[in-house]
Amino acid sequence: MALETPPKTGAREISTSLYCYGVTWAETARPQEAAGLAGKSVEPVRFEELAALTSEAPPGKVRARRADLMCHFDVLSSAFERGTVIPLRFGIVFDDEATLVEELLRPRRDELVALLRELGDCVELRVSAHYREEAIHGGEGRGRNRC
Fold first, then answer.
1. pLDDT tens across 46-57, in order?
2. Which pLDDT score, from 0 to 100, does residue 112 have?
3. What does pTM read for this prediction?
4. By the 8 A CB rule, do 22 and 85 touch?
């Protein structure tokens, strides 16, 4: 696993490195056209019942720019709509499909399957809290707890 795509040695060389967003069930994995980093299409790389969500990696280092972080999140959000997903941290790049299968999907197959099953009935929630400052710092009931 690398965090940088292979360096370009010639003008005609095309990177086959794959940026990986997460892992899901092969049966629910779908391509996402132009949804990946740098507008690349997201394609599943399947191994048995698993699929890694990937796109062609941009050349050079994958930098954590806001737009790229949001893109990573959006790809995962779209996949979450169809099923359970194990998200990978931002910036995971594999040399090619064979490397992805041999370094992630094959050796960790049992662990990934168990995680997908365990998370299958769960949902992710975000909670935001807002308060009125005057209710905390002043006004009636100063010094007393209020609901």
1. 999 999 999 998
2. 93
3. 0.71
4. yes
Residue 128, judged by CB atoms within 10 A of its CB (0-12, 13-18, 19+), counts as: exposed
pLDDT tier at 125 (50, 70, 90 boundaries)? Answer: low
User: What are 69's two structure tokens?
Assistant: 């972080």
Q: Which residue is associated with the tokens 């790049």?
A: 93
**What is the token pair recorded at 16?**
């086959």
Phi, psi (deg, nearest 5) at residue 125: -125, 145
Alpha carbon of 43 to those of 25, 67, 84, 122: distances in Å? 13, 20, 17, 25
Q: Measure the CA–CA gap between 147 and 111, rounded to whole angstroms.
A: 45
Q: Is 9 in a helix, a strand, or coil? A: coil
* The predicted structure's pLDDT at residue 138: 65
**pLDDT given for residue 11 in this prediction:** 38
Query: From the CB of residue 114, how many other CB atoms can be counted at a distance below 10 Å?
Result: 11
Question: Which residue from 14, 16, 12, 9 is spatially nearest to 93, judged by alpha carbons?
Answer: 16
Tokens 């400052």, located at residue: 133
